[in-house]
């Protein structure tokens, strides 16, 4: 059997060998609880604080602004629901703005808050998935006190103009003499694009370790100093009471090492991913009936992310056929109780339900190679020219 090609790095990544090696001692001899004051406890605390420093170095923030969590989902929930508690407790405007293409871990809290009496503005996006700054400005001038707009969309790879959004939020906040809280889901971005929170004045930002070489079960929330978020879960007070629960020591060490490596390798990886992306997009656009979803320009797309619709074939079918040929990719439609449904993101960019059902996502990662791109091109060419209307049937 041919070697498998894994091209689903936006779903998850393999734990890096260096990360695994670094975390193993913290599953065996260094097993202390960071809250204990004996030697083992102090060693564990030291490891946690070193990892916090490494995450802070990656993000360009202070270590005390980093809160370890179990995943991107928890970070997003704490950022939004915890801030909403503060907003409510302090009589601020109960008005949140999100884009229509947020991940469910942002959309879910937004809908929950709406059910609790918050006003929620869902910003539409254009055909490439980008929000309009004028629509955001209108919502801000109508008194919105919370904004959550993702940096890169997981399904269509679109990058939002995060810097311009932050500047606009700051401008309206200073003109109106009030604080506007801005959260950003950066789960897809870490390691692929530079992030500098000293310059980018976000209130909070979330990310997840398993997207860049750490294991599943660890993420973090950056929360800018002096920005108030109230707890939404309660326990022993760990992570300043925001993410209580005994710290997952080995996972935290893993996140620290993955963050250090990501910082050192980000520039080189970004270049490499852009190269793979460009090559695959070039090959796909030669095939009849293939249409990219999301941005056409690489500058507005997450490095290494390719998403498209192939007329005449369902995305899920293409995923399964690719799997039979040893290639792991994913589709933008999901089967719910026996019915295949296009995702909300694809509908938000205006794709017809039929087209949206044909959507496919291919995401390169650190382990990808030129040979993978070539194999992917060959497999897709075979599968797509076999099923497209007017072409020879096969594969
Ligand atoms: N936000 C985005 C954009 C994602 O792509 C994901 C996961 O795919 C998440 C949030 C949730 O992260 P986690 O899997 O760590 O809960």
Key features?
single chain; 395 residues; alpha/beta; Aspartate Aminotransferase, domain 1; Aspartate Aminotransferase, domain 2; 2 domains; seven-stranded mixed beta sheet; 15% strand; disordered C terminus; binds pyridoxal-5'-phosphate
Q: Rg from C-alpha positions?
A: 22 Å
Total discrete domains: 2
CATH superfamily of the largest domain: Type I PLP-dependent aspartate aminotransferase-like (Major domain)
What is the strand content? 15-25%
What's the β-strand tally? 15
* Coarse morphology: globular
- Ligands bound to this protein structure: pyridoxal-5'-phosphate
Distance between the termini: 17 Å
Q: Report the biggest beta sheet as strand number plus sense, adding barrel if it closes.
A: 7 strands, mixed
Helix content: 25-40%
Unreliable sequence segments: 388-395
Please name the CATH architecture of the largest domain.
3-Layer(aba) Sandwich
pLDDT averaged over residues? 94
Strand order of the largest sheet: 2-8-7-6-5-3-4
Please count the helical segments.
11
At the first level of CATH, the class of the largest domain is: Alpha Beta
